[in-house]
Design brief:
225 residues; alpha/beta; Rossmann fold; Arc Repressor Mutant, subunit A; 49% helix; 13% strand; globular
């Protein structure tokens, strides 16, 4: 698991099915811009090897022995903020989506996704965007966040934002891509990325998915109406 991967997006694969694990590794290595940094068969190994290899992306199965994928996702996201996790599962039940997102996952795909969609997900998440399976709508995230919403003590984390930053937050909550935000706010895409990085730092979130959840859970989204 130690070959040179310079210049490519490093992907760690965590999947307990031997055939699928091999297929995913071959798929990742088939893309010249990506490289399989390693492949493991349980959640504990995923946490261990993520700490050693520092991959950019982890493709994580949900149901694995020793430690399940949701627990492993939470551990990796807490210890390594720069490593992003995409959940791969055969199940499209709502609780898996929600718990994966709350654990810190940046993407969610079903295992029956076509290879091109899996590769696209890796690139999309690496670029700082969220990647959810077509079956998973933003409405599900909204409904879940509202059902769990509780007033947070102290000042709102959104209170220190500038007017322009609030405009960017509103666009993210609406589900706009970087390109759409740039067009709507008359900004360059580079400037949008700068705003996103600043917002993630100010709000203490990993990515735009976590930002949306925070906006709903804190009640801030109600102020955007």
């Amino acid at each position: 698991m130690g070959e040179s991967l310079a210049g490519r997006i490093k992907v760690l694969i965590a999947e307990d099915d031997d055939l699928l694990r091999t297929s995913l590794r071959e798929l990742v290595d088939s893309d010249p811009g990506l490289a399989a940094a390693g492949a493991v068969s349980d959640g504990r190994e995923a946490v261990e090897w993520a700490g050693r290899l520092l991959p950019d992306i982890v493709l994580m199965d949900v149901r694995m022995p020793v430690m399940d994928g949701l627990v492993a996702t939470r551990a990796i996201c807490e210890r390594q903020p720069a490593t992003k996790v995409i959940i791969l599962t055969t199940f499209d039940l709502d609780e898996y989506v929600y718990e994966a997102l709350r654990a810190g996952a940046s993407g969610f795909l079903l295992k029956n996704a076509v290879p091109e969609d899996i590769l696209k997900a890796v690139r999309t998440v690496h670029d700082g965007n969220a990647m959810l399976a077509p079956e998973v709508t933003r409405r599900m995230i909204v409904d879940y966040a509202r059902s769990r919403s509780r007033p947070r003590p102290g000042p709102s984390p959104f209170g220190a934002l500038t007017e322009r930053e609030r405009e960017v937050v509103a666009a993210i909550v609406q589900g706009m891509s970087n390109e759409e935000i740039a067009a709507a706010l008359f900004l360059s895409r580079a400037t949008v990325k700068t705003y996103l990085s600043r917002l993630f730092l100010k709000l203490g979130v990993r990515d735009r998915t976590q930002l949306v959840i925070l906006a709903y859970e804190s009640g801030y989204v109600d102020t955007l109406a």
